[in-house]
Design goal:
This protein is mostly helical and 39 residues long. It is 64% helix and 0% strand. It has one domain. This is RADIALIS-like protein.
């Protein structure tokens, strides 16, 4: 729902995920998932 051009993208995703995740937490998890599907 939050495109790469959305301001505060990772903060919005972290808020939607809940569980006291930070913007950096969800961004790192996203990077790990990208890595998993590429290799």
């Amino acid at each position: 729902v939050y495109g790469k051009d959305t301001p505060d993208r990772w903060s919005n995703v972290a808020r939607a995920v809940g569980g006291n995740k930070t913007a950096e937490d969800v961004k790192q998890h996203y990077q790990l998932l990208l890595h998993d599907i590429m290799f």
